[in-house]
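Margin note: ligand = zinc ion.
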Amino acid sequence: MTMERLAQIVNRVVSSPRAPEVRESSRFVEDLGFSSVNAIMLIALIEQEFEIDLEQHMTQLMQIQTVGGAADYISSVAADAK
Amino acid sequence: MQRPPAIIDAHCHLASNRCVPREFFAGVAANMARSSAFQGVPVSVDKITQMLWLQHEDHMGDKLVAQMDEAGIARAVLLVPDFTYVFKSPIDIESIARQHVTVRERHPDRFWVFQGVDPRWGKEGFDLFERAVTEFGFEGLKLYPPCGFSPSSEIVFPLYEICRRHRLPVLVHTGPTSPTLDFTFADPYLIDKAAREFPEVNFILGHGGVNLVEQAKLMCKYRPNVYLDISPFPVVLCDGGWPQHLTSLFAQGLNHKIVFGTDWPVHSLQTGVRPLMDELFSERGPLRALEQRSIDGIFGRSIAELVGKPYGN
Ligand SMILES: [Zn+2]
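Resulting structure:
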């Protein structure tokens, strides 16, 4: 569930028409061509969509390399917030 | 093509928000906000500033060392710009210097440190710089002219005099930077008078292989004591991307004046440096036509010679 919602958001951030399909294994930088601006946009959208605050998690978020990894992390943050 | 005996990153920083004032991040954030809005996801400048701020918590350099290990980088030059004269800062420049002493003790043999001092501090600042050399054992001077002074202004000369006496190199930031600073002092040509007046001091144009490259190249070609670094090459404005840009730069007979640098953490915090190194040293990468002497020089030997240290294992 988290993965599907996240994939939609990632698609919004990667606006290139040549961008490959977003999968769990997609790496943000190498596969999706993420820049630092893309990362900022993605975090802002995740906060809105999942109604969570990620500010205290910036260091950990920066280490995440794949979309699947991000989905797992968001699930755990969202669970803790409940 | 072989990787050099020990790769040295001649331009990086501690990713610590104790050493970089918030206004610096705010300027960077202002540019990112325009870009994100254009891409349909408006994010406020304050929000981005806060995100950038919170990404810089590697106060002891552990994360930096981990990514150096992963990328096969033996050693790095930590540059310590002094923003404390122009921006309100969490700690003063001496405390920032001491933080770098601690980092170096924690990670022996991994870092050389180039200390920054804004020349407008006057004697107090010059004394601090000299102590950083004699007491802390730092290896060079870092200057940040966009804070509001020309690197050839005579107010800087006492610092160059210290460098001359101790045989230390000077790394001078060139090119645009955070928009909260003054770009008119970022021109590589502004080093000319200083380089002429202090022929025994070696100057490295920070980002000279990426920003205002034509001026930087000419300065390196015609001033014997001027060098350039290639940081942060991944974000060079070139329609063929950075590998094409570097291929061209390395084909112009200036390799004895070029040193490798990443500018970590400024543009590679997310990726780390490993993927960049793999691409640099790939079969068809920008080093493919270079002789081993040039590769060794760019990736380690030249910066070691500039700081007066032996190179190799
Ligand atoms: Zn830098």
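Chain B has a mean pLDDT of 95.
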